Amino acid sequence: MKANMRQAVVSLVAAASLVVAGASLAAAHHSTAPFDTTIQKTISGIVKQVDWTNPHTWVWLDVPNDQGGVDTWGFEGMSPNYLARRGWTKSTLKPGDKISVVMRPLRDGSKGGMFVSATRPNGQVLRMTGEPTEP
Questions:
Q1: CATH number of the domain at 2-127, out of 3.40.50.10490, 3.30.470.30, 2.40.50.140, 2.40.50.180?
Q2: What is the pLDDT of residues 21-75, one digit of tens each?
Q3: Among 10, 113, 130, 132, which lies 20 to 30 A Cα-Cα from 84?
Q4: Which of 84, 55, 61 is nearest to 73 (CA)?
């Protein structure tokens, strides 16, 4: 029972953190101010959810942590319209996909950042900007 309670508390804290991080990012819409654009990091994990919504897409990734669990990271991407013109569709990334995300981290150290690109296990690179993505 104790383990279930602890897991519930951790899940609640993680969900609250995501809501707070999402709200702060929404307030800074169309600004790169929340992101450290001088740094790129790579984070690997499993796609938990993809929000194909305006004004920006979001990719949520479950990333293994040092305690043997997972942390959910959120990555802000370009608009669906912008991505569609570069070959992306709603199903380009799906829950369960294993990817490595190159991102520009949040300045406040929260688990998230600006989505730059992703690499699938087969080596395919999906870019948020620049040249269209190959199918």
A1: 2.40.50.140
A2: 554 445 445 678 889 999 999 999 999 999 999 999 999 999 999 999 999 999 9
A3: 113
A4: 61
